[in-house]
């Protein structure tokens, strides 16, 4: 810590957190010259080499089950610089806890601990010198942690103007080529599971096939309708399905109604058997091909370690086990929440 001289007062340009004639500031990032010049040219450090070393040591141990010699060398080089004794002979859990503790000390006041708590769901208790579950943990300032602290809040300015329900915005733009672009977003609560993820994917593909037949082939109103659905875990568990297409301005309103009709027909009658079979065959074929792709396994590992979700085990059996009735019920539960946003840009009439 660095004690500022009494001559340094609130008229100085560098006066963050100053309130009396005797001041205390964190010396780790304090620019002594700024006390007299009022100017600070220090860069804020985003990553330092010790953090890279921590990342290696933790990730290697998590992946293999035990720390290697390089992991020990990296941690001990940081401890040695601080005059601490080297670590040795630790099992996986002990070593991981040791890395977390070193991170807490080495990277303090570097805006890292909050994200470590998000990632590990653990908080360091200074009194017990142990990491404890973040939920219901009370820190030295008397703040009791809860799940809401893991997420940044959605600004009230956004939630106030975007409540749930149905919203529609059709606006006019002059275009050289007459066209209307339509985007419809449906959203709702949905449990984050492998089966639900697969059903959302199937629903997207089946609606794409439906709209290819009705909007493109029967009506000749668009080259194609894009349907994309997903279930997200953060910042909250929510399913979204987006439908978008370009069309002639005169056909915009009719095609939007045809999109809704396709959804209502799916809820009432379920998918066509031949289309469902095609979707299953396509998904299983892709699944087999993905087994050889690093990108696929990176996503699986991300879901497993970050989201605590297994999106690989039982994939094929789950796909084969999904029935038309399952999809019909899934669609009804999702769409009946009646959260619908439609935004259209048209060079024609907005009615």
Task: Give an account of the 3D structure.
By secondary structure, this protein is of the alpha+beta class. Helices cover 44% and strands 16% of the residues. The chain has helices at 34-37, 49-64, 69-81, 92-106, 113-120, 156-161, 194-218, 252-269, 273-290, 294-305, 315-321, 324-335, and strands spanning 2-4, 23-25, 122-125, 130-133, 166-172, 180-188, 226-232, 238-247, 339-346. Strand 7 and strand 8 form a beta hairpin. Helix 2 (49-64) packs antiparallel against helix 3 (69-81), helix 7 (194-218) crosses helix 8 and helix 7 (194-218) packs across helix 12 (324-335).
How would you concisely characterize the structure shown here?
With 351 residues, the chain is of the alpha+beta class. It has helices at residues 34-37, 49-64, 69-81, 92-106, 113-120, 156-161, 194-218, 252-269, 273-290, 294-305, 315-321, 324-335, and strands at 2-4, 23-25, 122-125, 130-133, 166-172, 180-188, 226-232, 238-247, 339-346.
Spatial shape = globular
What letter string, H or E per element, gives the SSE order?
EEHHHHHEEHEEHEEHHHHHE
Tell me the major beta sheet.
5 strands, mixed
Unreliable spans: 1-23
Indicate the multimeric state: single chain
**Would you tell me the overall average pLDDT?**
86
Total helical segments: 12
Structural class: alpha+beta
- What is Rg? 28 Å
Helix content: 40-55%
Strands, total number: 9
Q: Biggest sheet: strands side by side, in what order?
A: 5-9-6-8-7
Q: How much β-strand is present in the residues?
A: 15-25%
Separation, N- and C-terminal Cα atoms: 66 Å
